[in-house]
Amino acid sequence: MAHEGIEAVASLGEPTRRRVYEHVSREPQPVGKDDVASTLGLPRTTAGFHLDRLADEGLLDVDFHRRSGRTGPGAGRPAKLYQRSRSAVAVSLPPRHYDLVGELLAAAIEDAEGDGGSPREALARRARRVGADLLAGPGEVHDCDDVVAALTRYGFEPRDEDRRVVLGNCPFHDLAERHTDLVCSMNHALVAGLVDAASGCRLQPRLDPAPGERCCVVLESSDSV
Question: Is 204 helix (H, G, I), strand (E, B) or coil?
Answer without folding.
Answer: strand
